């Protein structure tokens, strides 16, 4: 009996490692991830291919995602693209970039729009594919995706001079199963 | 000999008489068949021309469909895709849901890809400079509109609806109008091409119809003329045949009346007791016998001719000695020849092989030739009969030729083709009141051919004629003749 339980455990672990284990309904249109597996995948910050920005610091990124910076250096208005509440990517951005909870983030934008500190609220997309297409269509858009969801239609910016596949990259996303 | 004319093969097999020269001569030699052949060729050629024209019209119609109709379908698709590109952009204006806006942006881009592909296909198939220019202008205007469309979409997705509308009104509308004008220009080009090709099809169809009517008309006229000419020829032939038959009846009647008159007069004299003495009665009896014999010969000739025409005679073909044949004929004609004081010069080459034939038929044939020679020799009173070995023009190898030559009035070259026809008599002979039925030569040729041989003539007007009877060598002696002809050293295996 103990041998049978051990065999089943090995099969389950092997299935997860090889990707055969189902990972929900998430779409994977982009190239294969270059970073950790879904249990610990890096989070890429993406902009439109026409955007001249190649690198952002963590602080700049925080100001952008909190809406306190409204325009790129080129003068183009910044459009923030977020995924719907509850998505792991959104949770990672709130935690690692904005350093806020969901409620704090909502309150921040309500207050900012009321006071005029924030000019435009984030655009909410339901899927990574929607995020990618939005950023592709809007030259001033900035969003985020798992590295496995990224493709050539959008541009990945370095954060603190690091690409998502490089060591020391600061933003990661964890899947619900990994929690 | 240069003035001599030779006829190797006559037309004795035909019952249809002929006139000299003109259409009748042409028709005699199978011209009716030739006419129908030409008529058939004309009809086939007409059919080929008509089929070619119908195919050309069909191909023109196919080109019209392939070129213009398909082109109009393409331009219709392009117009729809262009409208869809713009319509989807407007749909994005109608909602604040970013997910729906992205979906409409996608639809707009999918539609614009169809337009770009359609323009490329049009440019690929464009052949004229005008088509190329219009296609390139459309491509340029469409790309300009797409740049504005991208900006409008970006503004919509950013939430700047007012900016999007302003940009579209300011730049999008004029550019899209230019695109629409370009598409209309292409549509007009397709319309022009379709009109041109339609005109070509109509012209081709009209041309085919005119050709068809023309060719059918020519064929009809040709057919009518052919039938008319053939009927006319047949009618003339029938008239000629009737005339010849009437002449034949008159001639035979005359030939019968002369001996009958002699016989009747002799009988009257004897019956009236005017003839006295044994010698005088003997003289009358001899005259009656001679005239009766002449009548019998005439009736026999007519019966023989009739039997050869009906092909009732069954000949017994066997090897015959040429000398025996000629001796038989000379014996039968000696009384006639001697009575008119003719000399018959007979030369038979020694060692002649036997020939194939029926003794009675060949005797009749040679006898006819000899009697004719006597009849038409005029004052020369000389007839030459020769028998010799010669090269055959019909069979391979050798044959035996028997010639009957006279130094008489000869035959005109225009009459040579007709002398072997039944009932035919030369106008000159009729004018000189030389009696005859017009059956002798026809009968002789028919008999010669029935023996596997032939009868030919060489004649010159005022000089004389040579009739040659060509006879096949008996099968048993052919090898001997062949070995003798190949040389003295040749051996013959038996």
Produce the secondary structure layout.
The complex is a heterodimer of chains A (179) and B (494).
Chain A: H1 2-18, E1 41-48, E2 55-56, H2 58-65, E3 79-83, H3 88-98, H4 102-115, E4 123-125, H5 128-137, E5 141-146, E6 154-156, E7 158-159, E8 172-173
Parallel strand pairs in A: 2-7, 3-4, 3-5
Antiparallel strand pairs in A: 1-5, 1-6, 1-8
Chain B: E1 5-7, H1 22-93, H2 98-125, H3 129-158, H4 161-271, H5 278-309, E2 318-320, H6 322-340, E3 343-348, E4 355-357, H7 359-375, E5 382-391, E6 398-406, H8 427-431, H9 440-450, E7 454-460, E8 464-471, H10 475-486
Parallel strand pairs in B: 3-5
Antiparallel strand pairs in B: 1-7, 2-4, 5-6, 6-8, 7-8
Q: Tell me the number of strands of chain A.
A: 8
Radius of gyration of chain A: 18 Å
Largest sheet of chain A: 6 strands, mixed
The computed structural class of chain A is alpha/beta
CATH class of the largest domain in chain B: Mainly Alpha
Architecture (CATH level 2) name of chain A: 3-Layer(aba) Sandwich
Helix count of chain A equals 5
What can you see in these coordinates?
The complex is a heterodimer of chains A (179) and B (494). Chain A is α/β, with parallel strands linked by helices and 179 residues long. In chain A, 34% of the residues lie in helices and 17% in strands. The longest helix of chain A is centred in the N-terminal third of the chain and has 17 residues, at 2-18. Chain B has 494 residues and is an alpha+beta fold. In chain B, 68% of the residues lie in helices and 10% in strands. Chain B contains 10 helices and 8 strands. Chain B has helices spanning 22-93, 98-125, 129-158, 161-271, 278-309, 322-340, 359-375, 427-431, 440-450, 475-486; strands at 5-7, 318-320, 343-348, 355-357, 382-391, 398-406, 454-460, 464-471. In chain B, a hairpin with a 3-residue loop joins strand 7 and strand 8. In chain B, helix 3 packs antiparallel against helix 4 and helix 4 (161-271) runs antiparallel to helix 5. At the A-B interface, strand 4 and helix 5 of A face helix 2 and helix 3 of B.
């Amino acid at each position: 009996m103990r041998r049978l339980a051990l065999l089943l455990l090995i099969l389950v672990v092997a299935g997860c490692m090889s990707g055969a284990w189902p990972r929900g309904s998430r779409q994977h249109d982009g190239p294969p991830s270059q970073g950790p597996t879904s249990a610990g995948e890096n989070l890429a910050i993406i902009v439109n291919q026409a955007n001249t920005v190649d690198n952002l610091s963590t602080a700049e990124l925080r100001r952008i995602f909190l809406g306190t910076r409204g325009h790129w250096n080129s003068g183009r208005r910044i459009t923030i693209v977020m995924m719907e509440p509850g998505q792991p990517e959104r949770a990672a951005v709130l935690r690692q970039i904005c350093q806020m909870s969901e409620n704090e983030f909502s309150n921040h934008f309500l207050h900012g729009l009321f006071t005029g500190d924030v000019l435009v609220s984030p655009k909410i997309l339901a899927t990574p594919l929607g995020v990618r297409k939005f950023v592709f269509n809007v030259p001033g858009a900035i969003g985020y995706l798992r590295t496995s969801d990224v493709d050539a239609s959008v541009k990945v910016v370095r954060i603190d001079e690091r690409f998502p596949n490089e060591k020391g990259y600061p933003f990661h996303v964890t899947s619900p199963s990994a929690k | 000999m240069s003035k001599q004319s030779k006829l190797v093969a006559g037309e004795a097999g035909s019952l249809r008489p002929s006139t000299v020269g003109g259409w009748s001569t042409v028709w005699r030699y199978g011209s009716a068949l030739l006419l129908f052949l030409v008529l058939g060729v004309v009809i086939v050629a007409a059919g080929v021309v008509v089929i070619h024209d119908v195919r050309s019209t069909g191909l023109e119609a196919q080109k019209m469909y392939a070129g213009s109709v398909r082109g109009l379908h393409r331009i219709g698709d392009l117009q729809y895709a262009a409208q869809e590109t713009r319509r989807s952009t407007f749909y994005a204006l109608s909602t604040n849901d970013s997910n729906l806006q992205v979906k409409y942006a996608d639809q707009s881009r999918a539609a614009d890809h169809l337009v770009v592909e359609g323009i490329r296909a049009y440019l690929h198939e464009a052949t004229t400079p005008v088509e190329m220019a219009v296609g390139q202008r459309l491509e340029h205007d469409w790309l300009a509109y797409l740049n504005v469309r991208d900006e409008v979409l970006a503004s919509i997705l950013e939430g700047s609806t007012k900016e999007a509308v302003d940009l579209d009104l300011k730049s999008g509308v004029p550019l899209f109008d230019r695109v629409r004008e370009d598409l209309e220009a292409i549509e007009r080009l397709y319309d022009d091409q379709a009109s041109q090709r339609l005109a070509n099809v109509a012209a081709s169809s009209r041309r085919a119809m005119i050709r068809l009517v023309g060719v059918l008309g020519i064929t009809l006229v040709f057919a009518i003329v052919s039938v008319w000419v053939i009927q006319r020829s047949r009618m003339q032939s029938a008239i000629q045949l009737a005339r010849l038959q009437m002449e034949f009846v008159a001639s035979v009647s005359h030939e019968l009346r002369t001996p009958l008159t002699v016989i009747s007069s002799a009988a009257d004299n004897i019956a009236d007791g005017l003839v006295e003495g044994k010698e005088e009665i003997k003289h009358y009896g001899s005259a009656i016998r001679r005239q009766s014999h002449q009548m019998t010969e005439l009736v026999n000739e007519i019966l023989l001719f009739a039997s050869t025409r009906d092909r009732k005679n069954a000949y017994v073909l066997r090897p015959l000695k040429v000398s025996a044949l000629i001796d038989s004929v000379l014996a039968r004609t000696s009384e006639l020849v001697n009575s008119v004081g003719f000399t018959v010069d007979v030369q038979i080459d020694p060692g002649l092989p036997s020939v194939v034939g029926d003794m009675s038929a060949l005797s009749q044939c040679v006898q006819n030739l000899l009697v004719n020679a006597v009849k038409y020799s005029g004052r020369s009173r000389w007839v030459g009969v020769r028998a010799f070995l010669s090269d055959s023009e019909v069979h391979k190898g050798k044959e035996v030729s028997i010639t009957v030559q006279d130094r008489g009035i000869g035959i005109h070259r225009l009459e040579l083709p007709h002398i072997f026809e039944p009932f035919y008599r030369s106008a000159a002979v009729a004018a000189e009141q030389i009696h005859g039925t017009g059956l002798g030569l026809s009968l002789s040729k028919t008999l010669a051919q029935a023996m596997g041989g032939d009868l030919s003539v060489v004649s010159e007007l005022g000089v004389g004629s040579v009739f040659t009877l060509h006879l096949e060598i008996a099968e048993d002696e052919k090898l001997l003749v062949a070995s003798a002809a190949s040389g003295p050293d040749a051996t013959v295996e038996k």
